[in-house]
Amino acid sequence: MIMPRADQPMLDLLEWASGIGPEAFLTPIERAVYADAARDAGLRQSQATELTNLERQSRWQGAELSDEAVRRLSTFQQAFNEMARGEEFVLKSLSARARERERWDVGAPLLTVAVLGLLVLLPGKWAAGRCGPRPAQSA
């Protein structure tokens, strides 16, 4: 709750398990931008993968590409990868914004559950520490 933009692997796991992603904490406009960025990132990544596969296929099946064609493929791959990284930046930025809003709705209940869990588990250990055997007194 203190640092909502920091990496939160347990919260990521909870979001994944529950199916509640950052979209639930975004405004309608932000949700549309998030969906577009996710779709475009996947598209750009698949385009780069297609070009990589085309290059590999041409190497192994004997139909060699010219140096110019290889250079062109490489340029397109770099462009698609760069566009995908841009879309991933948008996704991370919007996810961080959603985390800032989410921290009170999700963080406070989780903190309460964690404190109650500690109170249930630890009182027996605290009592054992206070009421344990006393050292022998010398007479």
Describe this entry's structure for a reader.
The chain has 4 helices and no strands. It is mainly alpha-helical and 139 residues long. Helix 2 (28-60) crosses helix 3. The mean pLDDT is 80.
What is the helix tally?
Answer: 4
> What percent of residues are in strands?
under 5%
- Please summarize the sheet with the most strands: none
* Helix content estimate: over 70%
Q: Mean pLDDT, as a whole number?
A: 80
Structure classification: mainly alpha
Distance between the termini: 55 Å
Number of strands: 0
Order of helices and strands: HHHH
Stretches with pLDDT under 50, minimum 5 residues: none
Any idea what the radius of gyration is?
Answer: 27 Å
Shape: elongated
